[in-house]
TrEMBL record:
Keywords (A to Z) from UniProt: Cytoplasm, GTP-binding, Nucleotide-binding
Pfam families in UniProt: MMR_HSR1
Protein name, per record: Ribosome biogenesis GTPase A
Feature: compositional bias, Basic and acidic residues: 301-310
CDD domains named among the record's database cross-references: YlqF
Region span, Disordered: 301-320
UniProt cross-references to Gene3D superfamilies, sorted A to Z: 1.10.1580.10, P-loop containing nucleotide triphosphate hydrolases (3.40.50.300)
Gene name tied to this protein: ylqF
Top-level taxonomic group: Bacteria
General function of this protein: Required for a late step of 50S ribosomal subunit assembly. Has GTPase activity.
Length: 320
């Protein structure tokens, strides 16, 4: 099973973001702290590198993420050139309030009233861009006249007299190369699914929880996790909650829905779906799988070609 996501308006949004990049000083990319790389679009980094703009990667929703994983991601991103990570939650006004000063420190040549720092907020759907913008703009000072004429067509949203947001969030879409990214994005609700896929997503989540947070499963639902797999987790949720369909079978659909809902709301606990280490292990496994598929396909193609050549030789050799 593979989840894909190709909205038709992706190209025009990309073009718009590329154009805006020229007129901004700093990119703020909002990521989901529970799945930072799966919730990032690599195009953002390519665009900002092309224009040599620094980037502030906001690891948002830390209230839902595993603090140890978030600390590992911060160290990982801070080690990359031009990148600064800021773990935060829009639920804490103090976290939001630190952003303008942090942003200014990343582009020190800007930030005077005649040269305000120009920021673009980018990110895939549901990571919290709008919530963040609204929280930031509570401090809005409407002094649009101070802005030098850079892009007159665009409305400027002032955070304070030193900092201005371009008005449209740079909406990007996840680039799903690995099937596990699609599952993580669906689990965290960044992309929608139908009921059938929801079960697959819940099985995947069950596997992740078993591997990394078995004690949280036991604490929430009261079952032992030894010997279970992802499907077993969902069945145990059904068993514990008494979700059965007619005939006595487990109501897996309902249990899948409950598991996902509990995860998304934080009811199971603070859970990160990936860490820098688990990410590199997944990438390696994915590459090995792709290489193996390519090897099998090449072998099949060679076999077919050989059979075709043999058939041709046979026809040519056959007497009239
Ligand atoms: P977007 O513009 O990037 O698409 O995201 P938006 O601000 O609309 O936020 C998406 C969801 O994430 C919203 O919940 C919002 O309340 C929630 N959210 C934003 N920041 C945080 C945070 O720091 N912590 C937590 N826990 N939630 C945050 P929603 O409308 O209920 O959507 P959903 O979560 O049910 O999908």
């Amino acid at each position: 099973m593979s989840i894909q996501w190709f909205p038709g308006h992706m190209n025009s949004a990309k073009k718009q973001a590329e154009e805006q990049m020229e007129f901004i000083d700093l990119v703020i990319e909002v990521l989901d702290a529970r799945l930072p790389e799966a919730s990032c679009n690599p195009m953002v980094d390519r665009m900002r590198k092309f224009r040599q703009r620094p980037i502030l990667k906001i690891l948002n929703k830390t209230d839902l993420a595993d603090p140890a994983a978030t600390a590992a991601w911060k160290a990982y991103y801070d080690a990359l050139p031009g990148v600064t990570a800021y773990p935060m939650t829009t639920k804490k006004p103090a976290d939001v309030a630190r952003i303008p000063a942090l942003a200014l420190s990343l582009a020190p040549h800007r930030g005077v009233p005649t040269k305000p720092l120009r920021i673009m907020i980018m990110g895939i759907p549901n990571v919290g861009k709008s919530t963040l913008m609204n929280a930031l703009l509570k401090k809005r000072v409407a002094k649009v006249g101070d802005e030098p004429a850079v892009t007159k067509v665009q409305q400027k949203l002032y955070l304070d007299k030193h900092t201005v947001l371009v008005d449209t969030p740079g909406l990007m879409w996840p680039k799903i190369e690995m099937p596990s990214d699609g599952l993580m994005l669906a689990a965290s609700h960044a992309i929608g699914t139908n009921a059938l896929i929801e079960e697959e997503v819940a099985f995947f989540l069950g596997d992740v929880l078993l591997e990394r947070y078995p004690q949280l499963l036991t604490a929430r639902y009261g079952f032992k996790t030894e010997g279970l797999d992802g499907i077993g987790v969902v069945e145990q949720v059904a068993a514990r909650r008494g979700f059965r369909v007619r005939g006595g079978e487990f109501d897996v659909e309902k249990a899948a829905h409950v598991l996902l809902h509990d995860y998304r709301s934080g009811a199971i606990g603070r859970i990160s779906l990936e860490t820098p280490d688990s990410r590199s292990a997944r990438i390696e496994a994915h590459r090995a799988e792709v290489a193996e598929k390519a090897r099998i396909a090449a072998e099949k193609a060679a076999q077919k070609a050989e059979e075709a050549a043999r058939g041709k030789r046979g026809t040519q050799a056959a007497p009239e």
